[in-house]
Amino acid sequence: MRIETWTEPADLIYDRAAFADLISLRFLDAGHNLLVLGPVGVGKSHCANALGHIAVRRRHTVHMVRAEKLFTRLRAARLDQTLETEFRRLARLDLLIIDDFALKALDPVTTNDFYELAVERHARAASTIVTSNRDPAEWLAMTSDQLLAQAAVDRLTGHAHTLILDGPSYRQRPTPQHLPGLTPTATEPHDQAAPQWSHPRGRTGGPITLASDIGAAAQGLLVRFERPIAAVRVLIARSSRDTVDGALPISAAVLRMPSPWWCRSVTVRSCSWDR
Fold it and tell me: CA 122 to CA 117: how far, in whole Å?
């Protein structure tokens, strides 16, 4: 989730000037925290994630995690005697994003871990973003030790900016295919223009060889290669009479690549290879 993908609904209410200032990351440079609050489905996690992406692009160390998973990890670290190491790792981050905090009640162990984490990051003046459906005043009632939790919340909110989002849940909004008057149309993958391989013809490293026919009859399946791979199983063109670049009949179900290749999306019917 990035700021470029943020689609702002007309009925979403929030301080746009404050959000524009947060995008500058001045709060991060100053070592301040950020609380993103609001009801379910208004985009709190998206905003926090987008700020994290901006921070990463500016070469800050960032980690985003749901609160439940964070405390589960700390509980496991306590069992294998690596709790101090885990706290040091979390404290060293330039920006820690804790998503969906205080959705569930915090037991004594979790409350203590929350306090220790808040103390460690406050001592380093490291910024923390917390998203929550509850106001910080309600967090205390969700903990088992309110005095300990108050000390943690005080450190977390002492120099914190607050962004409040309000509006209906985006998950309940009609999707494009359900909008009135819109009839979705299906597009067959083989009707799309197929891009060519990203490597030049004649590349060293060996050809793509065609395996024996296994009797598969596909519908011109679109195949995507995004990483170096050694082999990929695909379904091939409509019949064995189809050809690849007018050269060889397609009767294969396996493309074998002897060396790593980076490729774009192609249909098997239009791919080219070394011969």
Answer: 8
